[in-house]
Write a structure and sequence with these properties.
Distance between the termini: 27 Å
Number of helices: 4
Shape: globular
Radius of gyration: 15 Å
Helix content: 10-25%
Largest sheet: 5 strands, mixed
Order of helices and strands: EHEEEHEHEEEEH
Amino acid sequence: MYQQMIFVNLPVNDLDTSKKFFTELGYTINPQFSDEKAASVVISDTIVAMLLTKPFYATFTKKRIADATSTSEVLIALSAESREKVDELVDKAIAAGGSASGETQDHGFMYGRSFDDLDGHTWEVIWMDPAAIES
């Protein structure tokens, strides 16, 4: 059965530093789709973050590349299997050099925290109670 995938392409300032950051979060780099201009970060079977050097990223668009440290161009949201996993991933990101972003959101049935990666891209990590989703 076909599973649709998402490839999130992100411009980065320093490819090696960004690769190190994401591997410290527990993700892997797929060498088959990585080189000196890009790194394929495997987040899950269906989610891949493509980290692209800014000059390489610029070959895919005629638009000005946003400075994610001062302009919000996208909010990337990832699900987590528990509240603890939300905290674990965000805490790893902060320990690896990222920064906390926004306030913790706790609505009982839904819990989330956010971090900015080394280039300022915002990642939201969210857990939702499966029972609340079914009702």
